[in-house]
Structure formats: C-alpha cells, structure tokens
Design goal:
The chain has three helices and five strands. It has about 130 residues and is of the alpha+beta class. The longest helix is centred in the first third of the chain and has 20 residues.
Length: about 130
C-alpha cells in the first residue's frame, strides 16, 4: 500500500469511529434529575427578571438550576437565586447558589452572556441548617 492509500484508509476509519461514537456521547444522556424544589418568586415582566427557588437540601443544586433555567423562555435576562428553605429570615435569605440565563438580545444585554447561555455558581460550602 502506498502512503496515499494508507492515509485514505486511516481517514475512513477515523470517520467511521466518530460516527459510531457520536451515538454514545454524553449529549445523549438524560440530564440529572432535579431534586424537589419550590419557586417562591418569579418576575413576569421587565428586561431583568428574578426567580427565587427554595430547596430542602444542598443535593443536586446544579440540577435544580438547570431545570429552572430550561423552563425560562421569555426574552429577558434571568437571575436565579437558590435558597435553603430553612434558616433564612424575612430580611436575609440562606443563599446556596446563584445563576443567570440570557434569552434573546435583551437577555444577552442584561446578563452579559450570549443568547441561550447560562452561568451558575454555588456558594462555597453551601449548607442548609437542620
């Protein structure tokens, strides 16, 4: 076999492997199931909107954010606050994580993210009081 034939065979093999492996990619795996949560506040107008979520434990905070963010469809900059259902007061919540999502050009301008993108950040060592 000459070098051209070998190169062609290698490219064909690589393409076949890529086609086979794409069906096993992590994109095909279902997203982590979000634990129970409650939306206690959600703005329904404005260019910047806030969603406040309460959870009973720190397990699966990212999955909670992803689930909430996946349901936000109105053009806006969405700011998601995840709080522990216990331990907060009327003037101070018990924040576990924050996130944001840009929907449309307004959302991109409001959040600094590209349209459709999200950003998530958990607080260091988040805890829910017993």
């Amino acid at each position: 076999m000459n070098r051209t034939a070998i190169a062609a065979a290698l490219l064909a093999t690589a393409a076949a492997l890529a086609a086979c492996s794409s069906s096993d990619s992590s994109d095909d795996k279902p997203a982590a199931k979000a634990p129970a949560y409650e939306i206690t506040h959600q703005d329904d107008s404005g260019n910047q909107r806030r969603v406040t979520v309460e959870v009973k434990s720190t397990e699966g905070l990212r999955a909670v954010f992803d689930d909430v963010a996946g349901k936000l469809k109105d053009d806006a900059g969405w700011f998601v606050e995840i709080n522990c259902a216990t331990g907060g007061t009327g003037t101070s919540d018990n924040r576990l994580a924050n996130g944001k999502k840009a929907v449309g050009k307004i959302g991109a301008a409001s959040t600094g993210l590209d349209d459709g993108k999200t950003e998530y950040e958990a607080q260091p060592s988040p805890k829910c009081p017993a």
